Amino acid sequence: MADMDDFTLPENEGDLQDQIEEVEALSSIYGDEWCVIDEASRIFCIKISDDLEEPKLTACLQIILPHDYPSAAPPIYQINAAWLRGPERSSLASGLEDLYV
């Protein structure tokens, strides 16, 4: 589980508390698929695959929590998957952005 003591303090301490709780919940939900990329910068990843035992297609949904998330800014999503291109990638990225609005 992530050690939230390493987080840089955002201007709104309520944001920090909300982020801590959200990261703990996501870590609990996703278990081994949850990955901390850079705790201080609040960058996390959810590993996704088509098969748990022998994955042929894998992706990483990278989640970046800005300092003013959730009070003023949405999370930033990045999809890392070499096989996902063109309209499918754009459609998925657009759908992720729409989740917060």
UniProtKB/TrEMBL annotation:
CDD domains in UniProt: RWD_IMPACT
A GO biological-process term: GCN2-mediated signaling
Domain RWD, residue spans: 21-101
Example of a GO cellular component annotation carried by this entry: cytoplasm
Protein name, entry field: Protein IMPACT-B
Organism for this UniProt entry: Liparis tanakae
